[in-house]
Amino acid sequence: xxxxxxxxxxxxxxxxxxxxxxxxxxxxxxxxxxxxxxxxxxxxxxxxxxxxxxxxxxxxxxxxxxxxxxxxxxxxxxxxxxxxxxxxxxxxxxxxxxxxxxxxxxxxxxxxxxxxxxxxxxxxxxxxxxxxxxxxxxxxxxxxxxxxxxxxxxxxxxxxxxxxxxxxxxxxxxxxxxxxxxxxxxxxxxxxxxxxxxxxxxxxxxxxxxxxxxxxxxxxxxxxxxxxxxxxxxxxxxxxxxxxxxxxxxxxxxxxxxxxxxxxxxxxxxxxxxxxxxxxxxxxxxxxxxxxxxxxxxxxxxxxxxxxxxxxxxxxxxxxxxxxxxxxxxxxxxxxxxxxxxxxxxxxxxxxx
Length: 353
Ligand SMILES: *[C@@H]1O[C@H](CO)[C@@H](O)[C@H](O)[C@H]1NC(C)=O
Ligand SMILES: *[C@@H]1O[C@H](CO)[C@@H](O)[C@H](O)[C@H]1NC(C)=O
Ligand SMILES: *[C@@H]1O[C@H](CO)[C@@H](O)[C@H](O)[C@H]1NC(C)=O
Ligand SMILES: *[C@@H]1O[C@H](CO)[C@@H](O)[C@H](O)[C@H]1NC(C)=O
Ligand SMILES: *[C@@H]1O[C@H](CO)[C@@H](O)[C@H](O)[C@H]1NC(C)=O
Ligand SMILES: *[C@@H]1O[C@H](CO)[C@@H](O)[C@H](O)[C@H]1NC(C)=O
Ligand SMILES: *[C@@H]1O[C@H](CO)[C@@H](O)[C@H](O)[C@H]1NC(C)=O
Ligand SMILES: *[C@@H]1O[C@H](CO)[C@@H](O)[C@H](O)[C@H]1NC(C)=O
Ligand SMILES: *[C@@H]1O[C@H](CO)[C@@H](O)[C@H](O)[C@H]1NC(C)=O
Description:
Residues 25-142, 235-350 form the CUB domain. The chain is mainly beta. The protein has helices at 3-6, 8-16, 21-24, and strands spanning 30-31, 36-39, 55-61, 67-76, 88-92, 101-105, 113-114, 119-125, 134-142, 153-155, 161-163, 197-199, 205-207, 231-232, 236-237, 239-241, 244-248, 261-267, 274-279, 297-302, 309-312, 321-324, 327-333, 344-348. The protein is globular and about 70 Å long. One 2-acetamido-2-deoxy-beta-D-glucopyranose is lined by residues 229-230, 239, 265, 267.
């Protein structure tokens, strides 16, 4: 394991101040006021990634007759899909982690959800490897349950939940026959979708894994709106804030894909005078001949397209450079043929004069 070297910054923080689990999880674990914010960790505000081995629990209590609704302002955890085997946020329908699970969330996907009674408990768990940006969730109290069922259950139109296998089995298990509608093959419009699916505005049901992945799967774009992160087709996360971060070509260190047009926005704290860019030595972008990069290229520019560095291509990593100002764009464009490993760079405002 390399983590003792890779995570020296955290060790330094830990020895400089007393870092306890409760400190990392913030100073409040029980919420009763309407309209609140819950952040993944106490360093979220100042741009720190979350730490290793966290196990934070928060409970929200709504008044009698109300439900707790949760939406994400931002959501960036390690992992993806349904496995969520590294870091995850798990929600429980009640006032403890012993209550029914409403699902595990990781990666960049978090769809609005509500409790089915007046308590909602959140459990944020991280593994022993590196942290990501974390999340900021907004909650408030509502009069209506948002239609959600447990993993593997079908969500009936009348808000009942039945086992997913009951769908289209010829029996009315929901009580309103909704589990027996839209069963014929070829039907594309649904009044409701199974848990684990997202209902598009046009009535299509798609896997929740496809929400906010940069592809217009619905295809009415409803799966790509209200996303916590800005992604564009095949580019991954495109917005970066804080004082340092890494940006790499898609799939790095494996080959990038064809026909990309990715712009990664770097936004440093207001007043930052310059941002440094340092490329990893592993660098390989298809070149079109000595000194030209008309096939594939990466270009870094400052605000308003000034201070252009690049286009870069070839197999020799560009030397480190700085961009004046508190924002920069990294644009990576590829054509339809010949893919290579790509690039990885670290941007930072730290250690600059
Ligand atoms: C918790 O932290 C917030 C922001 O740092 C502060 O405003 C608040 O007073 C703290 N609450 C308690 C109970 O310490
Ligand atoms: C709760 O938040 C949702 C989403 O922002 C909003 O639509 C709703 O009106 C809010 N409800 C209350 C009671 O504040
Ligand atoms: C779902 O329920 C709503 C009202 O609760 C009703 O208007 C609608 O027709 C129902 N849809 C189906 C497919 O049963
Ligand atoms: C992404 O960056 C754009 C341009 O800098 C900005 O308008 C937008 O608010 C950012 N989105 C997020 C989620 O940070
Ligand atoms: C994504 O970025 C665009 C501009 O680059 C901005 O208009 C849009 O609001 C952003 N989306 C989100 C969810 O922040
Ligand atoms: C960037 O990558 C380097 C090397 O892989 C790693 O040590 C560092 O923690 C990363 N930084 C961030 C902010 O992800
Ligand atoms: C990349 O996208 C931008 C707009 O987002 C566009 O102006 C530019 O022409 C595109 N470049 C290529 C090579 O497609
Ligand atoms: C960068 O690559 C794209 C995609 O092949 C190409 O359209 C563009 O002209 C190249 N830019 C330069 C400056 O060569
Ligand atoms: C990456 O692309 C190069 C050249 O196009 C090819 O030789 C190599 O096999 C590819 N590697 C992978 C893992 O696909």
